[in-house]
């Protein structure tokens, strides 16, 4: 049997465009004498449409394309994903059509999505007999007891995922960016076919393609893994194309630090140097090294670049506050002036965007976002946060990948730490440079670990209990506990309390941050959190166990 497997770039909400492409692929499959063609989950409309699914007229419109695809099945079997809308009931479904006869399987609602808000469930999955094979329709990585599983997916890229195929399966996944709310995800592709314990076809990651597979093939395909850099680049390109038409300039504030350096390089790699505009907006606290970093990176990338000093703007703002309102910011806590500087940068970057007809990119990383280490309407602005789901530690590896991709040093190496048995050596420790001798308050590698894992695959209780019973000293994180003096229970509790309190009280900032390019199933963008701080009973209970140690 010859099967056409389509790794489809599904355009979110563009039903006519998507179905037109599907019909082209069906014709190509006919010409190749394929017996069966398989498209991904929600191939007609896209998946992450949020409350658009509550619009009855929209649902009827999307459902109407099922009849068009059934009509194409006279001489070839077609499998696709779309919704079925009947009597105000919505089902996320997979369809099998041959000779205008259809079989439908309804998807189960899954965690980490809002499926249950929009779609009903129906677990029935009967067998499909077609050309001496018995098939079952599935979603994601489901496996049924049948000859061959046909699995449709809209699987996003996530770090540390298992991408291997299991069982006898024809697997079709989508590619491209889709978003709902503040979460921007990247469907990774990687469709494949596995028969008799051999993967006989593996699609390229993040690439649209149709491939004809003979199920009797015995040659095994070479396995591969999706890469973070490729996921980010596709996400940026697709977001830019679908939201802004692929035409607007992107403005990045280049401080010469790691976050802005990585962001500028990502934009350049994704969109091309002509559409990226870098601005270094210095204050008296910016070192010559960071200013030099920004200039050297801009030159290496070949992007538009300007640098200047906003001292006069800050002085004018301070003078206005003093003369018109009677506030002398020079006499106030340093945070007041720091925020004034950050908002001045945001003001100027927004001004540049208005002048150029472009948009500002957000430079914040995941640790800063989680802890609210940003200034609202200052460094928190932007149309998209491209590194907001990555910790500082993850940015170290990404920097190396970007330098490899460009074939030269675009991310300054003086920004990357040297990690050794005794700890970390920094040539340039991370800093916002908003006051003299400022350093970021994070305990890098340790806080990165907590932000990455707490609430995702590690509970606060499990973490604190591992400290209390001593098992934590057998884990990799132990070296950083010792390095930062957290082997002292009082220091450990004090630091953990600071982190949890800081995260809790800054939820109002996270609610106002830009859309986030996600690389985890659980992110700060899809987390639903109350702004009211809840009782910390777990922490307080285990605190009393740990402190006497």
Report on the structure:
The model has no long low-confidence stretch (mean pLDDT 93). The strands form five sheets. This protein has a six-stranded mixed β-sheet. The protein contains 16 helices and 22 strands. The termini are far apart. The protein is an alpha/beta fold. It folds into two domains: 2-226, 4-Layer Sandwich (Nitrilase/N-carbamoyl-D-aminoacid amidohydrolase), CATH 3.60.110; 234-546, Rossmann fold (3-Layer(aba) Sandwich). The chain is 36% helix and 21% strand. Helix 4 packs across helix 5 (258-271), helix 5 runs parallel beside helix 6 (288-301) and helix 5 crosses helix 10.
- Give helix % range: 25-40%
- Give the spatial strand order of the biggest sheet: 5-4-3-2-1-14
The portion of residues forming beta strands comes to: 15-25%
What general outline do the C-alpha atoms trace? globular
CATH architecture of the largest domain: 3-Layer(aba) Sandwich
Q: What's the main sheet like? A: 6 strands, mixed
Radius of gyration: 26 Å
Q: So what's the CATH class of the largest domain? A: Alpha Beta
Number of helices, counting only DSSP H or I runs of 4 residues or more: 16
Low-confidence stretches: none
What is the average of the pLDDT values? 93
CATH fourth-tier homologous superfamily of the largest domain = HUPs
Q: Give the termini distance in whole angstroms.
A: 67 Å
Total beta-strand segments: 22
The count of domains is 2
Structural class: alpha/beta
Could you tell me the CATH topology label of the largest domain: Rossmann fold
């Amino acid at each position: 049997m010859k099967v056409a497997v389509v790794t489809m770039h599904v355009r979110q909400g563009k039903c006519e465009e998507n179905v037109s492409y599907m019909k082209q692929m069906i014709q190509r499959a006919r010409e190749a004498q394929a017996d069966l063609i398989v498209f991904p989950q929600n191939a007609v409309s896209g998946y992450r449409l949020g409350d658009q699914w509550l619009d009855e007229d929209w649902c009827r419109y999307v459902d109407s394309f099922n009849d068009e695809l059934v009509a194409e099945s006279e001489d070839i079997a077609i499998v696709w994903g779309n919704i079925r809308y009947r009597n105000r009931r919505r089902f996320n479904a997979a369809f099998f059509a041959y000779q205008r006869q259809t079989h439908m399987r309804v998807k189960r609602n899954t965690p980490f999505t809002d499926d249950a808000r929009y779609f009903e469930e129906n677990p029935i999955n009967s067998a499909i007999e077609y050309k001496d094979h018995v098939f079952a329709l599935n979603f994601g990585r489901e496996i049924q007891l049948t000859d061959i599983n046909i699995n449709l997916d809209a699987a996003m890229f996530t770090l540390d995922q298992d991408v291997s195929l299991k069982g006898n399966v024809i697997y079709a996944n989508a590619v491209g960016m889709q978003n709902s709310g503040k979460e921007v995800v990247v469907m990774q592709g990687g469709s494949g076919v596995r028969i008799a314990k051999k993967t006989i076809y593996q699609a390229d990651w993040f690439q649209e393609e149709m491939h004809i597979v003979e199920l009797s093939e015995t040659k095994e395909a070479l396995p591969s893994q999706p890469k973070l850099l490729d996921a980010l680049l596709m996400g940026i390109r697709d977001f830019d194309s679908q939201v802004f038409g692929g035409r607007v300039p992107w403005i990045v504030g280049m401080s010469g630090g790691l976050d802005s350096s990585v962001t500028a390089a990502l934009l350049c790699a994704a969109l091309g140097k002509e559409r990226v505009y870098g601005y270094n907006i210095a204050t008296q606290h910016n070192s010559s090294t960071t200013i030099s970093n920004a200039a050297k990176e801009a030159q290496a990338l070949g992007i538009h670049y300007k640098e200047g000093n906003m001292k006069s703007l800050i002085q004018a703002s301070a003078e206005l506050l003093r003369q018109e309102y009677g506030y002398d910011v020079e006499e106030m806590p340093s945070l007041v002036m720091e925020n004034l500087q950050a908002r001045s940068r945001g003001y100027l970057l927004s001004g540049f965007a208005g002048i150029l007809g472009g948009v500002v990119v957000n430079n914040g990383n995941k640790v800063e976002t989680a802890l609210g280490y940003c200034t609202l309407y200052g460094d928190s602005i932007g149309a998209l946060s491209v590194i907001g789901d990555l910790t500082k530690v993850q940015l170290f590896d990404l920097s190396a990948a970007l330098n490899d991709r460009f074939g030269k040093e675009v991310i300054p190496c003086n920004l990357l730490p040297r990690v050794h048995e005794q700890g970390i050596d920094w040539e340039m420790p991370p800093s916002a440079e908003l006051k003299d001798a400022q350093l970021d308050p994070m305990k890098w590698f340790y806080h990165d670990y907590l932000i990455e894992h707490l609430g995702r695959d590690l509970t606060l209780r499990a973490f604190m209990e591992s400290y209390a019973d001593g098992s934590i000293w057998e884990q990799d994180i132990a070296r950083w506990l010792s390095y930062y003096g957290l082997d002292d229970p009082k220091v450990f509790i004090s630091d953990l309390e600071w982190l949890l309190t800081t995260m809790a009280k800054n939820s109002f900032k996270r609610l106002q941050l830009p859309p986030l390019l996600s690389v985890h199933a659980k992110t700060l963008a899809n987390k639903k959190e109350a702004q009211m701080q809840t009782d910390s009973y777990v922490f307080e209970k285990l605190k009393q166990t740990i402190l006497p140690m």
